[in-house]
Amino acid sequence: MDTLIRHLETWKPFTALVVGDFMLDQLQYGDADRLAPDAPVPVLHVRRTEDRPGGASNLAMDLAALRGRVLAFGATGADRDGERLRELLEAAGVTAGGLVADPDRPTTVKRSLIGLAQHRHPQKMFRVDLESREPLPGSVVRAVLDRFERALPGADVVCVEDYGKGVCAGPVCRAVIELARAAGKPVFVDPARIPDYSLYRGATAITPNRTEAELATGMTTDREQARPDHNAALARKLLGDLGLEAVILTLDRHGALLLARDGEPLAVPTTAREVYDVSGAGDMFLAGLTAARANGIDWLGAVRFANAAAGLEVELFGVEPIPLERVHREVLSQAGRISGKHRTLDQAVAQAAAIRHAGGKVVFTNGCFDILHPGHVSLLSKAAAMGDLLIVGLNSDASVRRLKGAGRPLNTQDDRAMVLGGQEGVGAIVIFDDDTPMRLLEALRPDVLVKGADYTRDRVVGAGFVEGYGGRVALVDLVDGKSTTRTIGRMRDSAPRPAGA
């Protein structure tokens, strides 16, 4: 996990080409509080309608959220829905110039009716699909492949997102894989639920779920057993039959099974979660896997990253791209360091970015925290209440000695970090070796800088810097008579004196 974290700290943008079935999702939200008078069916009183890119669009937008430059390739109808899909993709940062308009087919539209009953969570009531599953005509195939081939030299990775709507059928998928292999570009495939995977032969990796893999291999199992040895057998057959570098079986709450060429099957567990909606989890998993591999992360680290991204997705209603900062924060949370809250500065910057992306505030305070006493606890509690993430800058042992003199600190920096991490309001701890926390402030740019009221604003290091970009400085009242110096003094006064002293 440490290797994965180090890679995340140096994450680089990448370019991805996404080939597949691009769709338009139309969501109609309303109240479902009564039954129709003429039939025993619920009535949806529509309050609002929302258009979203769907299908392969989800993967494209997920990759963009992970800092990818994404180009979309496929086909739509020559209709208003196709125009709307292109508009939405471009607005989401996905280049839609590779989508070819076919006048003989409709744009694939999934229209979902979503009801809210008695002010509870929204629930999907019904879905209407408008689509054609016919393979693309030759002229459209040539147009898609021509645009793809022109973009290929500038790509880092290629993804195929096959929903079985006809775009990837026949020559398109095979040609995409052949062109990418010739150009030295890896190809990652989320397959359709079909019995023949031969069109994916030669790809780099494939990410079916267990049900899809069973259909493609003809190997069935007892659904209640889902034995690891059976999962490994599925992966081995796909790996051998298709000439892949890796197979990753996604296993819902059981995480994933990874089988890389010349490797042993590895179970990669996921974190238990409250599952609200599994829509889009497969797309987010493939996006995470692809983005991680584009950043040079090994197969195991890439699957862990993908698991974390997909896990965040299932906690949401509908499909929402998960930004890199949130996945980074989730990986840090799972990894844990010392007390689970010790971070490098780069890790804390990523954690702060994730909080801000969600609209939250970052709070910062700093100190030696040599012997944690009620005054410290009070300050930390008050600071935590001022925002959504409290980051504590903790002086290193060497820094404490320079500031406090010989004999300090009484507790090592690791011990102090562990005790601090036990405080509920503390979200992250960064140990620094400088005499002041200015380097941390410049990197973290907190919304609120907190110190005790024994300071005045002009004595708070970084006060002018924080206020200069719109942050604020908060001085909180101290607990009378509580300080580390006084505590140490009382300890020394109460220590037994040598005989004759």
Can you describe this structure?
The protein is globular and about 90 Å long. A nine-stranded mixed β-sheet has the order 5-4-1-8-9-10-11-12-13, sandwiched between helices. Strands 16-15-14-17-18 form a five-stranded parallel β-sheet, with helices on both faces. Strand 14, helix 12 (374-384) and strand 15 form a beta-alpha-beta unit. It starts with a helix and ends in a 7-residue tail after the last helix. 37% of the residues lie in helices and 24% in strands. The chain is α/β, with parallel strands linked by helices.
Key features of this structure:
nine-stranded mixed sheet; five-stranded parallel sheet; 17 helices; alpha/beta; UDP-N-acetylmuramoyl-L-alanine:D-glutamate ligase; 501 residues; Rossmann fold
The separation of the N and C termini measures: 56 Å
Low-pLDDT runs: none
CATH class bucket of the largest domain: Alpha Beta
Please state how the strands of the largest beta sheet are arranged side by side: 5-4-1-8-9-10-11-12-13
Give the domain tally: 2
CATH topology of the largest domain: the name is UDP-N-acetylmuramoyl-L-alanine:D-glutamate ligase
* Overall body shape: globular
**Which quaternary structure do these chains form?**
single chain
Instruction: Indicate the radius of gyration in whole angstroms.
Output: 28 Å
**CATH superfamily caption of the largest domain:** Ribokinase
Mean pLDDT: 87
Q: What is the tally of beta strands?
A: 18
Largest sheet: 9 strands, mixed
Helix content: 25-40%
Strand content: 15-25%
